[in-house]
Amino acid sequence: MRKITSTEKIYLVLVIVLFLLLLIKSLWIDGYHPKNDLENAVYNEYKTEELNNQNILRYKRIIKLYKLSDEEIDALDFILEYEYKIKLRVYLFGVIPYMEESDYIVQ
Hints:
This protein has helices at 6-29, 37-50, 70-75, and strands spanning 59-67, 84-92, 96-103.
């Protein structure tokens, strides 16, 4: 078995530090905090309805709420309960972000 060179040690430390930064970003910084009571209602309803049954390979987290304009609401083919578009980020193992998607709360 060969010894690890100093360059390999530096790369290993760098990978560990970057992974820890990703972990901090994904778990504490990426979360969304509602700004008013209506956003809080949208956030809580979506969280209780859609985000309760998640698996570890496809863990979703709300990262943003967008207020829809009248033109955007008219363009949709369904009736919304709230006039908000919910932006979600999908994580692998709850830490590694790999996709973003949007959703609505439909009546």
